[in-house]
């Protein structure tokens, strides 16, 4: 052990001789450190070739990790009488008397304050940022816990009509229990979905289950969140403007309505080193109206309920609401059966606001967005196809929605059974243009030939369908101002619905 201790002392001393003076700190004795030509006798301990004393200009005492050593330095080695900032190393020197280093011991090193640079702006930022980050994490965790707890509450909201309420009870999968969360937790602010900070954690809370649809925009997945199914629309990178537009509208406008697709959150997430843009909404397992009509037929009452719900959703979009948490008027610009979802109660809700136009008469502004994508050519109104639309007038965009609404009503009535007769599903203008018509092909059919979808004779034999047929014809006028408004369509269909209910009730009483 003695040899090891001596070796440690030698290595430390050799290292000290190589250390530049500006990298070491003085811990020498209180004697003045100055040059001297006088030789002194020093105690020599734990050093090789040392009989017990030695002669030099300086006597030193070192401690290296507990191993003590004493000996002599020549005048040229005076700078070694300083110690580097190394834990476990101490050196002291003296030359005031012979054997002065016998009295030297390791002093208690005073606490050294860090230089000013170590307590600069970066350190202050860290001291502030770390607690704030921890506070944010705790707040987000609390929000997630509150959402989970409230999602476990029973949900008792039913549809207004008794028939719809019955269907809600029968179909356990109808409209998941999002109601409590939005009614009790997320009504603050002007947006429709969850609070912004909660939205930015949604992607980590959702488990994707299955892909339920694909399109030019990207994919739609069914996911699970707090025990409920949700729809996750994952936008492709080339359609990111649609994601930005829908996120902007849903987060700044009160759009909560039974016939508008319910918005939950918008989030970004990373997958396979690429960024994905997510739009999380209510999930409706029956899919789009386009998909539903492929395999389902309707009775006249079901047809009316479906048409009325689409018109009601469009009225809510088109109407400006003046209140503390109101909404501007919105034109959809891409209304079609693929952008309408079917709910389990037989009603519909309008989706996909990526091309929407916003107008506020109260604040006098028109926001058309900056999305380069255009609407679907098959559903374009004549003034869009011949480029005569007044793009600076908001009413023009509403009128194009009415044209498309008429085509959607035509699709629904075509799949309605009357006297045992029903037609196969076909898209509008299927008999005059190809499956993917060009802009010019649609312009010729709609603007030049002024062709309109044909109506089957059976529609005239039923009071409900004959009225709906009349409504859709008034949505197809070549002149935009001559078309019905969404409000007029809804009022007409609402009265038709009331008359049908009264007739049904009277029939029940007679029986």
UniProtKB/TrEMBL annotation:
<dbReference type="GO" id="GO:0007179">
    <property type="term" value="P:transforming growth factor beta receptor signaling pathway"/>
</dbReference>
<dbReference type="GO" id="GO:0004675">
    <property type="term" value="F:transmembrane receptor protein serine/threonine kinase activity"/>
</dbReference>
<dbReference type="InterPro" id="IPR045860">
    <property type="entry name" value="Snake_toxin-like_sf"/>
</dbReference>
<feature type="signal peptide">
    <location>
        <begin position="1"/>
        <end position="21"/>
    </location>
</feature>
<dbReference type="GO" id="GO:0070724">
    <property type="term" value="C:BMP receptor complex"/>
</dbReference>
<dbReference type="Pfam" id="PF07714">
    <property type="entry name" value="PK_Tyr_Ser-Thr"/>
</dbReference>
<dbReference type="GO" id="GO:0005524">
    <property type="term" value="F:ATP binding"/>
</dbReference>
<keyword id="KW-0808">Transferase</keyword>
<dbReference type="InterPro" id="IPR000333">
    <property type="entry name" value="TGFB_receptor"/>
</dbReference>
<dbReference type="InterPro" id="IPR011009">
    <property type="entry name" value="Kinase-like_dom_sf"/>
</dbReference>
<dbReference type="InterPro" id="IPR001245">
    <property type="entry name" value="Ser-Thr/Tyr_kinase_cat_dom"/>
</dbReference>
<keyword id="KW-1133">Transmembrane helix</keyword>
<feature type="domain" description="GS">
    <location>
        <begin position="176"/>
        <end position="205"/>
    </location>
</feature>
<dbReference type="InterPro" id="IPR008271">
    <property type="entry name" value="Ser/Thr_kinase_AS"/>
</dbReference>
<keyword id="KW-0472">Membrane</keyword>
<dbReference type="GO" id="GO:0046872">
    <property type="term" value="F:metal ion binding"/>
</dbReference>
<feature type="domain" description="Protein kinase">
    <location>
        <begin position="206"/>
        <end position="496"/>
    </location>
</feature>
<dbReference type="GO" id="GO:0007507">
    <property type="term" value="P:heart development"/>
</dbReference>
<keyword id="KW-0479">Metal-binding</keyword>
<keyword id="KW-0464">Manganese</keyword>
<dbReference type="InterPro" id="IPR000719">
    <property type="entry name" value="Prot_kinase_dom"/>
</dbReference>
<keyword id="KW-0547">Nucleotide-binding</keyword>
<dbReference type="InterPro" id="IPR003605">
    <property type="entry name" value="GS_dom"/>
</dbReference>
<feature type="transmembrane region" description="Helical">
    <location>
        <begin position="124"/>
        <end position="149"/>
    </location>
</feature>
<keyword id="KW-0812">Transmembrane</keyword>
<keyword id="KW-0418">Kinase</keyword>
<keyword id="KW-0325">Glycoprotein</keyword>
<keyword id="KW-0675">Receptor</keyword>
<keyword id="KW-0067">ATP-binding</keyword>
<protein>
    <recommendedName>
        <fullName>receptor protein serine/threonine kinase</fullName>
        <ecNumber>2.7.11.30</ecNumber>
    </recommendedName>
</protein>
<keyword id="KW-0732">Signal</keyword>
<dbReference type="Pfam" id="PF08515">
    <property type="entry name" value="TGF_beta_GS"/>
</dbReference>
<keyword id="KW-0723">Serine/threonine-protein kinase</keyword>
<dbReference type="InterPro" id="IPR017441">
    <property type="entry name" value="Protein_kinase_ATP_BS"/>
</dbReference>
<feature type="binding site">
    <location>
        <position position="233"/>
    </location>
    <ligand>
        <name>ATP</name>
    </ligand>
</feature>
<keyword id="KW-0460">Magnesium</keyword>
<dbReference type="GO" id="GO:0001525">
    <property type="term" value="P:angiogenesis"/>
</dbReference>
<comment type="similarity">
    <text>Belongs to the protein kinase superfamily. TKL Ser/Thr protein kinase family. TGFB receptor subfamily.</text>
</comment>
């Amino acid at each position: 052990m003695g040899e090891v201790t001596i070796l440690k002392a030698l290595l430390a001393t050799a290292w000290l001789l190589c250390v530049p003076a500006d990298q070491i700190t003085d811990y020498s004795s209180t004697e003045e450190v100055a040059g001297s030509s006088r030789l002194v006798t020093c105690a020599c301990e734990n050093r090789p070739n040392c009989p017990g004393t030695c002669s030099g200009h300086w006597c030193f005492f070192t401690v290296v990790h507990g191993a003590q050593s004493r000996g002599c330095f020549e005048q040229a080695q005076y700078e070694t009488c300083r110690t580097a900032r190394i834990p476990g190393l101490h050196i002291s020197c003296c030359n005031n008397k012979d054997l002065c280093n016998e009295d030297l011991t390791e002093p208690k090193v005073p606490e050294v304050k860090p230089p000013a640079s170590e307590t600069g702006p970066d350190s202050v930022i860290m001291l502030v940022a770390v607690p704030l980050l921890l506070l944010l994490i705790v707040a987000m965790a609390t929000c997630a816990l509150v959402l989970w707890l409230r999602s476990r509450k029973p949900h008792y909201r039913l549809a207004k009509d008794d028939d719809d309420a019955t269907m809600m009870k029968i179909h356990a999968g109808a409209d998941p229990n999002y109601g409590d969360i939005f009614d009790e937790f997320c009504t603050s602010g002007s947006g429709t979905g969850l609070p912004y900070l909660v939205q930015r954690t949604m992607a980590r809370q959702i488990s994707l289950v299955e892909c339920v649809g694909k399109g030019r925009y990207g994919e739609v997945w069914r996911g699970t969140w707090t025990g409920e199914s949700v729809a996750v629309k994952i936008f492709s990178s080339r359609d990111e403007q649609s994601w930005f537009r829908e996120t902007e509208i849903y987060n700044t406008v009160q759009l909560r309505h039974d016939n508008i697709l319910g918005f939950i959150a918008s989030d970004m997430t990373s997958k396979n080193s690429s960024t994905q843009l997510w739009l999380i909404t209510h999930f409706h397992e029956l899919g789009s109206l386009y998909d539903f009509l492929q395999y389902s037929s309707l009775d006249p009452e079901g047809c009316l309920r479906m048409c009325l719900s689409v018109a009601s959703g469009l009225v809510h979009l088109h109407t400006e609401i003046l209140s503390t948490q109101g909404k501007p008027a919105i034109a959809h610009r891409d209304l079609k059966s693929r952008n309408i979802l079917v709910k389990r109660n037989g009603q519909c809700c309008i989706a996909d606001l990526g091309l929407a136009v916003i107008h506020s008469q109260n604040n006098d502004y028109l926001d058309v967005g900056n999305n380069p994508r255009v609407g679907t050519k098959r559903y374009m109104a004549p003034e869009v196809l011949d480029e005569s639309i007044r793009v600076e007038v908001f009413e023009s965009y509403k009128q194009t929605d009415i044209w498309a609404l008429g085509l959607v009503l035509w699709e629904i009535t075509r799949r309605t059974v009357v006297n045992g007769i029903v037609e196969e599903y076909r898209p509008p203008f299927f008999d005059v243009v190809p499956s993917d018509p060009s802009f010019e092909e649609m312009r010729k059919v709609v603007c030049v030939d002024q062709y309109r979808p044909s109506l089957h004779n059976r529609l005239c034999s039923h009071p409900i369908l004959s009225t709906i047929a009349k409504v859709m014809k008034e949505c197809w006028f070549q002149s935009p101002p001559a078309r019905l408004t969404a409000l007029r369509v809804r009022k007409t269909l609402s009265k038709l619905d009331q008359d049908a209910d009264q007739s049904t009730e009277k029939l029940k009483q007679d029986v």
